[in-house]
Amino acid sequence: MNELPLPKESHLKPFPFVAPHRVLAWGVWVGIFLVAYNYFSRGGGAAREALGEPRFFIPFVVTVFLTLFAFFYWRIRRWLTTYNQAIAFFSAGDEQEASRRFEEAARRATQGAQRTVSVAMMGQCELAQGNTGRALELFGSAERSGKLRGSVPAMYKWMPNLIAIVRFAEGDLASARAWLEEGRKRNSDLPPIYALLPEVALLCRDGNPAAAVSTLDARAGEADSLVGRDARRLKLLRAFALDALDPVSHATAIDASLASMQPVRPGDFELLSARWPELQAFIERRGLSRAA
Hints:
Distance between the termini: 29 Å
Structural class: mainly alpha
Radius of gyration: 26 Å
Strand content: under 5%
Order of helices and strands: HHHHHHHHHHHHHHHH
Number of helices: 16
Shape: elongated
Helix content: over 70%
């Protein structure tokens, strides 16, 4: 598999292991511990004399602790609020605004897992809009961070399938197959989320429409779970595969599949057809070129 690129923006790159705010926080905690230890331990008379009576020292320590706790709680709440706003826009189909909110969430992240999830979701938004180069950078950041495996195992397992879609759209079929295989290795007992679209597309691209239709029939539940553009793209591929098998005998099924795609939105099919002349010709022949 080819090396994945990274975004140029620092707030979209993997979270640094040694972050300034983390060093500062640990420094404060260690400082409080050492002072408290000296205060209460034997031989801590000098510290007690320097800091004064307990009625001054203890409130001071409590105040510092509560201040730090409130600060980090506030930062986590800022990230969570922005992330939930992004999810709401993404669910409503407004990928452009969702991408902007996910980027803001990545900027506000205080932990590596928070940034990685935000960046991965931003990548999905960019992919939905057909911005494959940008999506690949964001997925590359999520992959290289190493945070998904332990923090969000489900996302770790289906990330290779999203990368496979991007590689397919860019015309790198060998890389798309390699990432699909990586997705199978990670899949374990989870459903192969996001794998169906690149698998069916590759079967069609390889000139095996019968296998593509059989795969769609065998995994109808997985196909039905997809919504939005991915669902419409699968229906387009079904119609394309049936047309490649026999456009006459499958005419009714082809028309039904195309009709079920409505309403079609601009940019729905460009992701698949940009480097696939046969699919582009089918789209034009069926009068779908405006939506593509």
